[in-house]
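tl;dr need the bound structure. longer version: we got a ligand (TXE) that a collaborator sent over and nobodys looked at where it sits. i said id run it. heres the input, straight from their email, havent touched it
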Amino acid sequence: MPAELDKIRNFIDGQFVEPVGGRYLDNIEPATGKAYSHVPDSDGRDVELAVAAAEKAFAGWSHTPTADRSRILLRIVDLIERDLEKLARAESVDTGKPLSLARGLDIPRAGSNFRFFATAILHTESEAHITDGVAFNYTLRQPRGIAGLISPWNLPLYLLSWKIAPAIACGNTAIAKPSELTPMTAYLLCEICREAGLPKGVLNVVHGTGPNVGAAITAHSKIGTISFTGGTVTGRKVAESCAPMFKKVSLELGGKNPNIVFADADQDAAIAGSLRSSFANQGQVCLCGSRVFVERSVYKDFVDHFVEKASQLRLGDPLEATTDQGAIVSKTQLDKVKFYVDLAQQEGGTIALGGSSPEAINERCQSGYFFSPTVITGLPVSCRVNREEIFGPVITITPFDNEDEVIGYANDNEYGLASSVWTQNLNRAHRVAERIHTGTVWVNCWLVRDLRVPFGGMKQSGVGREGGDEALRFFTEPKNVCIAK
Ligand code: TXE
C-alpha cells in the first residue's frame, strides 16, 4: 500500500482532516495479521464537525436540480470504473477477500449502486389525488436533511455505496461511518467524490469505532435519518438510540438463511449454487445459505458431491489470482468461527469437511486469519449452531422428508433475511416461496439481484427495506399538499 495511505483521514466539508483527538487505530490486514495502515479513532467532536458541514451544505444540495445531482453521481460511477483495480486491491487487502471477488463483485456493484440511483431520480413519478369537486392533492417528496449511514466490514464499498447513493441522490447530505475494520475503500471513495465535483459537505466520512463514532451519529439530534447494516446485537443498540428522537431508521441485520434442495431439483445446479451461497466471501455475507436442507432420498449423494466440490476450493493468499477462499476479516471473527465449530461437535455434529485453520498459506500469510470451508452434518435442527449466525465458512446439511417439515425447519429461526429453494416443480416453487418467512426467496439461484426490488429482512434480520423505490421513499419525506377548489 502506498505510503500516503499509511494514515488515512476523515473527509469533512470537502477536506481530508485529522481526528480532533489525534488518535489512530491500527488497520490490520487479515491475510497477514499485521497492521498496514492507520485509521482515525474519531469521536463525537469529529461528528460535530461533520454535522456542521452537512448542515451548511444541505440548502444548496437539496435545491440542486435533479439532473445536476444525477450528472455528478454518474461522474462518480465513471471514476469508480476508472479506479477499479486500485479499489479492488484496497478492498481485498482490507477485508481478506480474494482480489478476484473484489474485482468481479464488490467494486462493480458499487458503481452499479451509484448508477442506479443517479438515473432512478430522473424518472420518479409524482402523485396527485382529486377529491371529488372539493380539492386537489399533490404529494411532495422532499429530502429529509442529514442522513447517518453506518456500514459493516463484509462488503465495505458495496454496502456503503448502497446507502450513500440514494441518500445524496435524493438531495440529502450524509455522514457515513464505515467499519473500523475495513475503512480503505470508503477513504478512496471520498477522493473520487471530490474529483467528481460533489459539493463540499454533501458527503462526510468519519472513521472510528462504533461506540465512539457510530453511537455519536445515532444520538445526534440533527441527524434525523439512520441507515444501518450490521449485526443484530448492534442493530438493537442503534434502534434504542434512535427511538427517543423518533428518527427514521433502516436496519439490515444478520441472517441464518435456509437453503432447501428438493429431490426433483437439478442436483448439479443445486450443488454449484449451494457452493456459492455457502462460501462466497468466506461465508461472510448476511445472505449466505448456512442451513442447507436436502430431501432425504438425495441427501447422501448431495453431501458426497458437495463435500467433493467444496474440498476443491482453493484457500490461499487473497492477492493470488488462483484463490477462491481468502482470510476471515479479523481475529475476533476467526475466534467466533472456531467457537461455533467446537460447539457443533459438542452438540453432536460430524465434521464432514474442514473444521480448522489450514497449515500456513505462504510466507506472507503465515500469521493471517484463515479457516477451511467447513461442512457439518448430523446436528439437531434446533441446536445453537443451527440457530445462531456464525458469519464464516461453516454450513450445516440436514435431511428432510417432506415440504411441510422443511418449511417448518426453515421458519423456526429468529432471523428472516433470505432463502433459496431448488426444485423443478413450478407449483412447489410458488407454494414454498409463499410460506417461507424471509425477505427474499431465490428459486434455483442465489444472490441474483435486481436493484429495483425491495431488499431486507423480517424478524431479527431487520426493519425496513432498501433498494429501488423503497430506498427513494426511505430517504425522502412525503408531504401532502391539499388545495381547496
Ligand atoms: O458488526 P457490527 P461486527 C454480523 C456478523 C458479525 C456480527 C458482528 O454475525 O459476527 O454482525 O459483526 C458500527 N452504534 N454481521 O461487530 O458491530 C461498527 O463500527 C452505532 C452481519 O463487525 O454490527 C460498524 O461500522 N454503530 C452484517 C457497524 O456498526 C455501531 C455484516 C457494524 O458493526 C455501534 C457484518 C453502535 N453502538 C456483520 N457499534 C450484515 N447484515 O451484513 C458498532 N457500530
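gonna send this back to them w/ a short note. The CA atoms of residues 283 and 429 lie 25 Å apart.
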